[in-house]
Amino acid sequence: MMGAAIETVGLRKVYPAPKVPGRRRPAGAPPAEGVQALKGLDLRVERGEFFGLLGPNGAGKTTTIGILTTRVRASGGEARVDGVEVSAQPVEVRRRIGVVPQRPNPDRSLNVEENLVFHASYFGIPRSVAAPRAQGLMERLGFADKAHAKIDALSGGQQQRLMIARALIHEPRVIFLDEPTVGLDPAARLGLWEILRELHAQGRTIVMTTHYMEEADQLCDRIAIVDQGTLLALDTPAALRAQAPGGTLVELALDGDAEPLVGAAAAVPGVERAEAKGPVLRVFGPRGGEPLPALIALAEGAGRAVKDIQLARPSLETLFISLTGRKLA
Amino acid sequence: MSTVALAAPGAADDDGPRVSAARVFGALLRRDVRVARKELPSFLLRTTLQPIMFTVVFGYLLPKMGFLGRDYTAALLPGVLAVSLAMAAVQAVTLPMAVDFAATKEIEDRLLAPVATHWVAVEKVVSGMLQGLVSALFVLPLARLIMGPIPGLTLSHAGEVLAVAVLGAAAFSAMGLLLGTAVQPQHIGLMFSMIVAPMIFFGCTYYPWRGLDAVPVVKYLVLVNPLVYVSEGMRASLTPGIPHMPLAVALAMLLVLTAVFGGLGLRAFDKRAIG
Lengths: 329, 275
Description:
The complex is a heterodimer. By secondary structure, chain A is of the alpha/beta class. Chain A is built from eleven helices and 14 strands. Chain A has two domains: 6-16 and 34-236, P-loop containing nucleotide triphosphate hydrolases (Rossmann fold), CATH 3.40.50; 245-313, Protein-tyrosine phosphatase receptor IA-2 ectodomain (Alpha-Beta Plaits), CATH 3.30.70.2470. In chain A, the strands form three sheets. A six-stranded mixed sheet of chain A has the order 6-7-8-3-9-10, sandwiched between helices. In chain A, strand 7 (174-178), helix 6 (186-201) and strand 8 form a beta-alpha-beta unit. Chain A starts with 5 loop residues before the first strand and ends in a 5-residue tail after the last helix. Chain B is mostly helical. Chain B has one domain (21-273). The model of chain B has no long low-confidence stretch (mean pLDDT 90). At the A-B interface, helix 2, helix 3, helix 4 and helix 6 of A face helix 1 and helix 4 of B.
C-alpha cells in the first residue's frame, strides 16, 4: 500500500481548562472551557517528503507532533502515520517512527552509547546489531569521542545530536523533529541542516516544526503555516513566497497609536494595503521605497513622530505577517 | 563532518522490525537492572541504613544494657526486614518516576517503545519488586549478625517467607507507581515525612501486632497501614513462635493491596503518559 506517509483529517485537540485551586464549580454550571490547541487540521504528507510545520509558539505544532507520535490523545478527527490509525494502533505507529523532542531528554542514568543501544533494544534490535550502528551514528554526528561519557558531559548541541541518533537507531521510516535547532549556535544549526538534508536524500519522510522562516525555506519541500490551531497556507516555499502580498512590506514605528492613519495610508499611491498594530503602521506595496516620503509626511502631518522604519522584501515572513497579523518569533 | 554515511531506511514495503511485547518488556527490565547495578551502593545505603541503625540500637545496645530482653530481637527482625523490603520497593519506583514525569521527561524514550503504555508501568513495578527483594536479602544476614542468635528464628518455612516477600514487594512497588504519578517532585520530602514515616512507626515493624491487644484502638487503626501485613507475614513465617496475625490474612491483604494500588497506579500512569 502506498498511501500518504501522514494524513490528518479534521484533527482536533482540546486541553482541559486549568483547575483553579480552592474553587469548585457550582452544581449545574457548565464545565470551564478548555484550550483549543487544534481546530480541525487537515494535512497530507507524501512519502519521502520533507515537510515543515511553521508557526509561532502556541500555534499547535507541538500538539500535532504529539498526536502523530502517539504521545497526545486527539479530541477528534483522524490521524494516520504510514497508513496506520494513530489512536487505534499506537504500537504499530511507534514501530515506524523516530522522534527528536523539542528539549533533549536523554536517559541520564545511562551513558551516551547505552542511550542508543538500549533504545534500539526497546525495538527488539540485538546489541550485536545496535552497537556498530550506534558507533556509525556517533561518528557521523560527531560525538563518537563521548561514547562512554555521562550525559552531563555533553554540550547542548551534542545532546541534540544524540537525540537525532536515538531517533535513527531503529531506522524508522518517518522522522519527527520538534524545533530541533532551538538553542543551537549557528555552526551547530548548519551542521544539523546538512544531516537533515542527507536523511531526506535517502528517501525518509521528515516532519519538522520550526518557527524559523529561513530554516523552513531552506529545507522543506512543502510548508504548512499554522496559527492558533488552524492551517493558514500549505505549499512549496517558492509558491508561498509568490503568495506574499504586494511585494514589499514597510513598517513605520510611530510614537503613538497608528490606527487613525490606516485609512489615509491606504490611499497613498503605491500602497496596496495598510494596517495598524499598536504604534506600528504596516503597509504593503509593489515597490517599498516609493510611498515612503508620502507616508512619513502623512504621519508627521497627523502629529506623530516616526521612530523607526523597516523594509522587508517578499518572503515567507511577510506572507506570515499578512496571514496572521503578527510576527513569528 | 566525517564522510560516514547514515544508514538508509529499509525498502518501502518493509514496515520495520516486528517485536513481541515480552521482548520489549525484557529490554526495559534490563535497562532498569543496569541502572540499579550502577547505583547499588547508594541505593542500599538509602534504603537499609535506617533499619540497620534501628537494629543496632534495639537489637544490640538496649538488650546489652538490659533494658530489653533477648526475646525482643525475635519480634524485631521480621519488622526490620519488612521495612527494608517495603521502603526499597516504594522508593525504587516513586523517586525516578516523579522526577521523570514532572521535570526531565526522561521516560519519554521508553514511552516511544513499540509496546502498550501500561507495560512500561508494569515493568517499573517488577523492577521495584526486585529492588525490594535485594534490599531485604542484604539486611537479613546483617541484622542476624548484629543481633546475635535470635530465639525462635527458623528458615524452615522458606517458601512462606518468599511468598510474603514477593507479595509485600509487589504491594509497595505498586504503591510507588501510584505515588510516583501523583506526587510533584517538590513534595517528595513532604510525602516521606507525612506518609512514609508514620507508616514505618505504625506498621508493626518494631512490635508485634498482637502486642497491641493492650491498646485495642491502635490495634484496629493500624490495619489501614499496608506495612502491617508485611511485618506480620514475616513474623508468621520467620518467627512463628511470636504471637502474630494469621499468615493467610496477611497474604490475602497484600494481594488485595497489590491489585488496588496496581489498578489505580496503571490508570494514573496512562493519564500522565499520554496527554
